[in-house]
Amino acid sequence: MPDSHLDLLGNLQRTHMCGTLRAGDAGRSVTLMGWVNRRRDLGNLVFIDLRDRTGIVQIVFDKESNPSLHEKASGLRSEYVIAAVGTVKKRDTPTVNKNVATGEIEIIAEELRLLNDSKTPPFSPSEEAISNEELRLKYRYLDMRRPEMQANIELRSRVSLAIRQELSKRGFLEIETPFMTRSTPEGARDYLVPSRVYPGSFYALPQSPQLFKQILMISGFDKYFQIVRCFRDEDLRADRQPEFTQIDLEMSFPSQERVFEVVEEFLVAAFRQAGIELKPPFPRMKYDDAMRQYGSDKPDLRLPPMSDVRAAFTEENLNALTLDPLLPVVAVRIPKVGELSRKERDDNKQLWSARPGAKLIDDLKRLEKSFPEAVNKLRSMSGAENEDLIVVVGGGVSEDRSPIAMRKAAEAVYASAGAFRLALAQKYKDRHGAFKKTQSAKDYRFLWVTDFPMFEYDDKEGRWNAAHHPFTSPHEEDFGKLLSDPGAVRALAYDIVLNGTELGSGSIRIHRQDIQKQIFNALGLSDEEARSRFGFFLEALEYGTPPHGGIALGLDRIVMILAGADSLREVIPFPKTAKAVDLMVDAPTPVSAAQLRELGIAVKP
RNA sequence: GGGGACGUAGUUCAGUUGGUUAGAACGCUGCCCUGUCACGGCAGAGGCCGCGGGUUCGAGUCCCGUCGUCCCCGCCA
Fold first, then answer.
1. ipTM, 2 decimals?
2. Measuring from the CA of residue A353 to each C1', which nucleotide is nearest?
3. pTM score > 0.80 for this model?
């Protein structure tokens, strides 16, 4: 027998949503359904705040006018699910609540059905803040009843719809690609799925649909997109989950600029969902300039760039500072920091972490004592204001002055200075104010970073690796350097960056089999190895592959930024913890020996 | 793989130099209350101090280990 204290829904139909009722609805008869957010029991008068996805509305139960209904309402508790039939009444002026959207009205109850009760929840969805994430994730269904989470998930839905509409309008087809596919040994670690039919063989979950979307271009689908889950078995961060969603797209016959245009168009549509009107085109910056000016391939444009101030120093100055005159001397400028005590200046040095070769010199205030002339020149070169903190970074003298070593050392100077710039910027964010969250479009500093290097040298392995991925096309004029000078080959690869966060990454791909072969050779892959890893793809390239290119953007990160959240977990309904555990369903779990045996996987003794 | 922070009531937290019976607020239960909206008042229940070991006459507090959550580095073509 079912519980007798619960009422049946019967043929009762919901007529309105709680949060949508206004003074204009006064006199209307409504049927509402939702959760008891709060009960305020004044004895002979009971107020119930009823909550659904749209908000909260107050329902009044008066003992005098309906004793049995009032009695029933007194028995309601937090998170009970009810249906209430009643009449919307405009509140008397003194009882209006300006803090609630529906505060000008209330519902005079005529019927109440208790559809379900609830255990006392471990935390209340009506609470303002809940800090224990472990609990939130375990009881995710309660957490997601909170208005903040409801808003985030709704925003996510609207953003992805807007992007779909925009891309669809531009002639893109959304085409699905497999989740059970082939392991590719390059890149991130794969999540593997064992094959029962072929013991010892595994499918891999895709890190991205890269090769499939290229195959779709070969198939003539011309403009493809997919809002698609990707999987990477690497350690997590606040902005990294093992499964995440990408806005993945690919086009045939595009220029790099055409790809940028498409992305800018759908980002405008996406940001409009959060009330932000972006103004493309976004600025573009070459990778080399990004590294020199920001010491990063994802520059945060909200603060001024670094400047090379080597010319401010004489040869003697550099000797006195034991700096290599062939290496850059970089001034890092953080605006509006103001006067600092000696202790604060020392503390700042704690934030410095040098890559080999880079050397923190000091801040300007201190340099001034020993090198007054250099500092004078430097000030005018870097455009410094009085309140700005300026710190100077250079390259130490080392024995190995080969071109490769010098290039590495220069990179180290820029990269260390760039990291220091961000650390200082974070520390003094309350002073310069550039990192404040706001709703204005001008605070979203987008940037296209272009002309990435094609290859990166791996010291440990002693060989060249693809900086982006091995299907990225080099600049046509750099084709000749593929084998002679791989380090100088520029790729038609690009990133889109927002306020120092990488939102997406793409490239114009290789469509010619001969070039693809050369790239594999440059990467030290023999024809045989290339065949065994990517044979199906190399074969496909031989059947009339059009020039093509595309990009993939992280949807989770975009929504996180639009929601003003600090973690992807705030915008993913069912996220995983830092150790890749789902606390709600308790995954992963061991499986039975029988299951393992069936899959041909050895059982641990 | 490495570094850091945290773990005490359902929840958020306090807990002094190691010393009687481990506290507060919110929540919960009961009673009172007709205009509340974080309702209010009175009363009450509620604790493996994450877990294991050690030091000590005595451990929430000190030490070692372990587990969990979060942040960062490595890693993420």
1. 0.93
2. B73
3. yes
